[in-house]
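The instructor's notes for this session suggest beginning with a concrete chain rather than abstract definitions. Hand out the sequence below and ask the class to guess, before any prediction is shown, which regions might be ordered.
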Amino acid sequence: MYSTTPSLVSVGESSGIVDDNSETYLSGIAREGTGIVKWGVLDGQQCKFHWSAPKANPKDKSIQRIKAECL
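After discussion, reveal the predicted structure:
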């Protein structure tokens, strides 16, 4: 999706901006859940997504990549 308006993603209390590659960085989120991406103010300019990450080793502090698509 490309727009002159930045796309914003929100997951609970975490939020971020979606980059030109449709990627964002969020920290401190649950292992699974639902979020919202908005690229405008109209109902048709937003979507919900669900993600589920594999259980990680608590000692592993690396960044996990998770793919999620609009529902």
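Then share the key points. The CA atoms of residues 31 and 55 lie 7 Å apart. The first strand starts at residue 7 and ends at 11.
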